[in-house]
Amino acid sequence: MKPIQVNDLHKTYLQGRLSTKVLKGLSFSLDEGEFVSLVGPSGSGKTTLLHVLGGFEDYDGSVELFGKELKTYTETEKARMRAHDIGFVFQFYNLIPNLTAYENILLASVLGKHKTKDDIMAVLAMVGMEAFAHYHPGRLSGGMQQRVAIARCLINEPRIIFADEPTGNLDYKNGLAIMDLFKTLNIEHKKTILMVSHNEETTRYGTRVLHLLDGKVIKDERLAI
Ligand SMILES: Nc1ncnc2c1ncn2[C@@H]1O[C@H](COP(=O)(O)OP(=O)(O)OP(=O)(O)O)[C@@H](O)[C@H]1O
Ligand SMILES: [Mg+2]
Questions:
Q1: Looking at the 3D structure of the chain, how many domains does it have?
Q2: Full-prediction pTM beyond 0.90?
Q3: How many whole angstroms from 21 Cα to the centroid of ligand 1?
């Protein structure tokens, strides 16, 4: 069973009388253990695709997550899927500013698999942030905040990690360090990753590149590792 199987996916946004066709018959599947970069010009539908896969948007066509059509998930099943099976990492980290690094991860754990204090410290150690557990995000650099956000995404042991330009707000050096971390998660921890990438250089950390143009996959490129 493939973690993701998308067939002839269409997505149109309606705003009043304005309709914008964004995804126009997009198909691809993802195997367990792949690290796929999603590239394409601004407006080609990369973020929209992640939002559909996360169950945040309705759509036409077929999207199967873990062998089950997403349209058939109830709201409760979707909430459970988001808390247990998938992890999100965003460009702007999306940490809660008045909670410490530890508490940000604890909150995700309470909403998910109810992990122990040791588990939380272990994911912080995995991203090299155990010494900063009790810091609030405002006292951490962008790269450090992104590490905490990755630890938060790992705490519930997701089956897939979705990341939307996770290095887009970081300087070059911190960006590469975060890419190294994703590569380790893929190779050593066997995490399946689908990452929107703006930058050609970051795609070489993955195993495959999906090129989007105008709402369709125009090229599916497997990389030699
Ligand atoms: N909630 C929304 N309502 C209406 N239109 C939207 C909405 N979200 C996105 N769009 C439109 O859909 C198109 C694709 O947007 P999307 O954010 O998926 O592109 P993207 O490939 O992620 O671009 P970028 O590289 O700039 O992040 C754009 O034309 C955008 O204006
Ligand atoms: Mg985007």
A1: 1
A2: yes
A3: 10
- The pLDDT-based confidence of 187 (bands split at 50, 70, 90) is very high
Residue 191 included in any domain: yes
pLDDT at position 198 is 85
Atom of ligand 1 nearest to the CA of 49: 18
Give the Å distance between the CA of 168 and the centre of ligand 1. Answer: 16
Query: What single string gives the DSSP state of each residue in 45-71?
Result: SHHHHHHHHTTSS--EEEEEETTEEGG
Q: What is the CATH number of the domain that holds 126?
A: 3.40.50.300
pLDDT at 29: 97
Across the chain, mean pLDDT equals 96
**73 pLDDT more than 90:** yes
* Residue 5 resides in a domain: no
Asked whether residue 20 is domain-assigned, the answer is no
161 domain residue, yes or no: yes
